[in-house]
Amino acid sequence: MIKLFQFAPAFGLPNASPFCMKMETYLRMAGLPFELVNSGDVMKAPKHKLPYIDDGGNVVADTTFIIEYLKGRYGDPLDAALSPLERALATAFQRLIEENLYWAVVQTRWADDAGWARTRVAFFGAMPAPLRWFVPALARRGVLGEMRGHGMGRHTAQEIYAIGCRDVTAIADFLADKPFMLGEQPTSLDATAHAFLANLLWAPVDSPIRRHALARPTLEAYCQRMRARYYA
Prior knowledge:
Distance between the termini: 22 Å
Shape: globular
Order of helices and strands: EHEEEHHHHHHHH
CATH architecture of the largest domain: Up-down Bundle
Strand order of the largest sheet: 2-1-3-4
Radius of gyration: 17 Å
Number of domains: 2
């Protein structure tokens, strides 16, 4: 049995970490049996990040490497039939979502004070004293340091919002009226897109990026379609 180590669910989502939600969504899409371990213990994770899996003693971290491992061991029911062009598009949109839009959403949750107030409760509210007195501030400082190292954190809030809105527009324009990101059939790209868009649309953290996404009803319809199919 595959064990998926992740954060506990929050914000009414399967996971408030889009990477954790991406991994659970992929496992559901691929039809692989798994067990959730909602420990949230990053210190025990191989790369001090969640999620990671333990598959009968094979421990793999990072969602991209996990999915590659699962494809190699259990087959590739989602992406095997993709053309080289479709694979290139999937890689490009995965990078846009995970390496750019993600950090714009981090701004809304970890840097903006209103978003941080909700994030602190969702991620650290159940933490016992005295940990909850100082761990949230340390975690916030660490995330914002990573954001600055990435480069996104060197922009103003308004510049970050503009970047995030452009990313959302690109996703919406590419999705258009297709049922899934690459067409009629779901692929592993949809695990990424659904997890990140649902975390943007459905988490109770208001921002110009979220309002921009809500103004594009095809994105809401897409997330509802994915939820009905894989989380019913």
